[in-house]
Write a structure and sequence with these properties.
Blueprint: E1 4-10, E2 13-19, H1 25-32, E3 51-54, E4 57-60, E5 73-75, H2 88-95, H3 105-118, H4 124-130, H5 142-157
Parallel strand pairs: 1-5
Antiparallel strand pairs: 1-2, 3-4, 3-5
Length: 158
């Protein structure tokens, strides 16, 4: 088996990994770094369960190799909370009961985080469109949209 050693920057920390060149970023994060927030869902980039931020933009970690992330800043759901305090999105998801099984939640929060960075005062339809690439089988989306709108209000207030 042929392996490469490379460095990834994930959640502000640098990690040296040794993997096969064809190992998916999702698998590197989960298996090599122990970051189990990104989930393997459809493994075709459709469901959004594997969503992470790469240089501030959402990507599907099941659609790229780990080595392709060299030089980029990756953020997983584990890196969203800062200093032991939950991010307003995480708090609002909890307060609005915007999760049931939790499988889609990391991807939803990261997609919402990117969206709110670009649209700090969204309308409900905008939130629904922004999250349309992330599938949830449990909640019916209303509580998720409510949580994102509430987090947007909190984030605007500072």
């Amino acid at each position: 088996m042929y392996t490469l050693t490379y460095t990834l920057t994930v959640n502000g920390a640098e990690y040296s990994v040794q993997t096969e060149p064809r190992k998916l970023l999702l698998d590197v994060l989960r298996e090599d770094l122990g970051l189990t927030g990104p989930h393997a869902g459809c493994e075709h980039g459709v469901c959004g369960a594997c969503t992470v931020l790469m240089d501030g933009r959402t990507i599907r970690s099941c659609l790229m190799f780990g080595i392709q992330a060299v030089g980029a800043r990756i953020i997983t759901i584990e890196g969203v909370a800062q200093g032991g305090a939950l991010h307003p999105l995480q708090e609002e998801f909890s307060l609005h009961h915007a999760l049931q099984c939790g499988f889609c939640t990391p991807g939803m929060i990261l997609a919402a985080l990117e969206f709110l960075g670009e649209h700090p005062d969204p309308q409900e339809d905008d939130v629904r469109e922004a999250l349309s690439g992330n599938l949830c089988r449990c909640t019916g989306y209303d509580s998720i949209v409510d949580a994102v709108l509430a987090a947007a209000r909190r984030m605007r207030r500072g």
